[in-house]
Write a structure and sequence with these properties.
Blueprint lengths: L1 H20 L21 E4 L4 E4 L19 E6 L9 H5 L8 E4 L5 E5 L17 E5 L31 E10 L2 E12 L5 E11 L14 E2 L23 E6 L8 E6 L8 E5 L11 E3 L4 E2 L17 E5 L4 E6 L4 E6 L10 E4 L5 E6 L4 H4 L4 E8 L4 E8 L2
Antiparallel strand pairs: 1-2, 3-22, 4-5, 5-6, 7-8, 8-9, 9-10, 11-12, 12-13, 13-14, 14-15, 16-17, 17-18, 18-19, 20-21, 21-22
Length: 401
């Protein structure tokens, strides 16, 4: 009788967390006497970046001038977020500090951007902290920066319990549009660990039918990070050992011989693991039972069979198809932003090429879908990158040729 009780407990635990995650926090708009947040928390080393920086989860601000960098191939363009950005996100959206900036096309030419832990007015008791936030852009010319649309306080996409050691926060790691609906894969962070290490409860896929204004997480999309395989039954969360390798994600739609498939790249929680890849048909994005995993020789139906396609350390990932290169492009950022290419989604992937140095202190490079290199109109690839010193998102351009 022990096994059924254990299974029931795990399913109940996952269900409780998801129910809490479905709640959207309601926060008050910034008051007239408002101030962007700055950090007074502990300072700890981040070895993959190489500097002593604020602990993960604390706003580093206040935002400084954009770091100027131009190597001839790669150039910093403009702040995307923060009080000093051209978007004035503090006054317009109540966002003084944020990171990640996962970007994808909503299927109608608008770019949606999902951010991680977000801060607003420092004078409020909770600094208007949100677990995540969504902003939008119709900007088709990124040469002079990424302009955001609209205004109004940017509320949470999905909530979290908010307790360290149980569920501290929920952070988007990948986004994609399929048949008019928006899908975001996110991780439920249980606790922050040593530098560049964090511990997750699960990853899951949230879906929106109204262009990101509201989100719902089906329980059967949850991948519990337990390191063991236990069958939980149809409609329940997945609990397989291999799910630990898909706690953070990146999506890309297949091209050429891979057309008709969507590929999900996965890494374990933190910034030290290797990368894996799964594939599924677009209509099956919410059905983990129909995913297939690359084994090194072929595709298998369980995550336990997946084998690495890129050796670690691999950090937060972004993957896209470039018609200019006729290859898939991958970005990550241990000690600077690196670029790899491959002719097929599973690789083999090229050795990494450094496109932005570690001195810029950038992490989580997320490609912009309307980059010329991704549209086939030029070699310029634009990506969002977060910067710890300012805890805000910066637009960077590189030449993929």
């Amino acid at each position: 009788m022990r096994r059924p009780r254990h299974r029931s407990f795990q399913a109940l635990l996952a269900g409780a967390i998801v129910a809490a995650s479905a709640l959207t926090a309601v926060a008050t708009p910034g008051v007239a006497d408002a101030r962007a947040c700055s950090n007074s928390g502990p300072i700890v080393p981040i070895p993959l970046i190489g500097r002593f920086l604020p602990k993960i989860g604390a706003a580093a601000g206040p935002q400084k001038a954009m770091p100027v960098y131009d190597s001839g191939r790669t150039k910093t363009v403009a702040w995307v977020t923060g009080p000093r950005s051209m978007n004035k996100t503090f006054g317009r959206f109540g966002v003084s500090g944020t990171d990640v900036g996962v970007a994808w096309d909503n299927g109608r030419g608008q770019t949606l951007l999902a951010f991680g832990d977000t801060f607003g007015n420092c004078l409020t008791g909770d600094q208007q902290w949100r677990h995540n936030a969504l902003l939008r852009s119709g900007d088709q010319n990124l040469a002079d920066g990424l302009r955001l649309d609209g205004g109004g306080y940017a509320g949470q996409m999905f909530g979290a319990l908010g307790f360290e050691g149980i569920e501290k926060t929920t952070i988007p790691t990948a986004g994609i549009s399929i048949n008019g609906k928006q899908y975001v894969n996110y991780m439920s962070v249980r606790a922050w660990g040593p530098p560049s290490v964090w511990y997750t409860n699960y990853s899951a896929t949230a879906v929106s039918s109204d262009n990101g204004h509201s989100w719902f997480t089906p329980q059967n999309t949850i991948r519990i990070n337990a390191g063991v395989t236990v069958p939980l039954g149809a409609g329940s969360p997945s609990m397989q050992a291999g799910d630990a390798n898909f706690q953070q994600s990146a999506y890309v739609k297949g091209s050429g011989a891979d057309a008709g498939w969507v590929f999900q790249y996965g890494t374990p929680n933190g910034r030290f693991g290797p990368a894996y890849v799964a594939r599924f048909r677009p209509s099956d994005i919410l059905d983990l039972g129909k995913y297939e995993y690359w084994t090194g020789r072929g595709w298998a139906p369980t995550p336990d069979a997946a084998r690495p396609i890129v050796r670690g350390p691999v950090t937060e990932l972004s993957v896209n198809w470039s018609p200019v290169l006729n290859k898939y492009v991958m970005l990550d950022s241990p000690r600077g932003v690196r670029l790899r290419t491959a002719s097929s989604p599973q690789g083999p992937w090229s050795p990494p090429r450094l496109v932005a140095p570690s001195s810029l202190e950038l992490y989580a490079p997320m490609m912009l879908p309307n980059s010329p290199a991704l549209r086939g109109t030029g070699p310029e690839l634009y990506f969002n990158a977060s910067r710890w010193d300012d805890y805000n998102v910066l637009l960077v351009r590189t030449n993929v040729r």
